[in-house]
Specification:
By secondary structure, the chain is an alpha/beta fold. It contains ten helices and 13 strands.
């Protein structure tokens, strides 16, 4: 019995608890259209399941935006970045790169900022983790692809608009303006009370009054502006005088959108096609009067184009000078 070996016992020493990784989900759709709403729900549901399937992860919050990926000021995206700086998040989980950013520079800048905070971004669809340094180049490449997709989407939208312009089916042809209202079919019909004001503005201008004097005259007659204000702005008067809709025509393509990613609007001075629909609706003034006003506005302008360059004329129009000319 003295040689009997003691019974062996094994005690398991548990590993130190690493704790849960706090995971933030970020989702985005480009519009609030019903189909996009469904897409947002699908994104959230999919990514929530990914978090639930990982025992070391805990969902912190779901951030979602209904906006363009090119918009840096997405509200929930900004909240996400703020919470990252507050050290509340360990991992940001996104369905795909194009949902996170569509501009390569912004994408890499954001990823770099988060990596500097020790936060990992995981793009689920591409199976990319920013904690793996070798993926930096891949992220750049995929970001460029996402940007290209955004440009393609923009071109598709432009083509869709153009098709509507050419066919005459675009709703922009029947967009309301001061002097008109829409009937039950969405067609433009004259709002006679407002139309009287439009006719008065054209007549006053052709009688020799300047834009400023027309503003005073309308104020004197107690005629409110399209915005319901007591005093008209000079811009409102100019808009009325230059709006071809009052002659029964509609011109589309007056402005155009610049190339991605700026997406700024510019006046179309012939760089792009325009689309003119004649006899689109009942005119408030006849075409001849509209043309008279257009030519008179050109005559009064103190800006002229010489050899493709904009120059200021030596003299410019004034009501006083016009009155003197009439008495000579």
């Amino acid at each position: 019995m003295e040689n009997e070996k003691p019974k062996m016992t094994v005690t398991m020493i548990p590993a130190k608890s690493q704790g849960f990784k706090m995971v933030a989900i970020y989702c985005r759709v480009s519009t609030t259209h019903e189909a996009q709403e469904e897409s947002l729900d699908i994104q959230i549901k999919t990514l929530k399941q990914v978090v639930a399937d990982n025992p070391k992860w805990m969902l912190y919050h779901v951030y979602s935006d209904k906006d363009s990926g090119g918009n840096v000021f997405r509200p929930d995206f900004q909240k996400l970045i703020f919470d990252c700086y507050e050290n509340r998040i360990d991992i940001v989980l996104v369905k795909t790169i194009s949902r996170f950013a569509r501009n390569t520079v912004d994408l890499l800048e954001t990823v770099s900022r988060l990596k500097g905070l020790g936060i990992e971004v995981i793009f689920h669809q591409e199976n990319i983790r920013t904690s793996e340094a070798d993926n930096d180049m891949l992220i750049s490449v995929l970001g460029a692809i996402a940007q290209s997709e955004s440009e393609s989407t923009g071109e598709a939208i432009k083509w869709g608009l153009k098709r509507g312009f050419i066919s005459g089916n675009s709703k922009l042809y029947s967009r309301k303006c001061f002097g008109y209202k829409q009937n039950e079919d969405g067609e433009l019909i004259i709002d006679e009370k407002q139309a009287e004001v439009v006719r008065a503005i054209f007549d006053l201008y052709l009688s020799g009054l300047s834009i400023g004097l027309i503003v005073h005259e309308l104020e004197k007659r107690e005629i409110k502006s399209p915005q319901g204000k007591d005093i008209w702005s000079k811009k409102s008067i100019q808009t009325v005088l230059g709006n071809e809709k009052y002659s029964g025509q509609v011109l589309l393509g007056k402005t155009y959108t610049g190339d991605f990613p700026n997406n700024r609007q510019f006046m179309n001075d012939g760089e792009h096609e325009q689309f003119l629909m004649k006899d689109a609706h009942e005119p408030i003034i006849d075409f001849d009067k509209f043309e008279q006003v257009r030519k008179e506005m050109e005559r009064r302008s103190n800006i002229e184009i010489v050899n493709g360059k904009t120059k200021r004329k030596r003299t410019h129009y004034s009501t006083k000078r016009l009155m003197n000319e009439r008495h000579e």
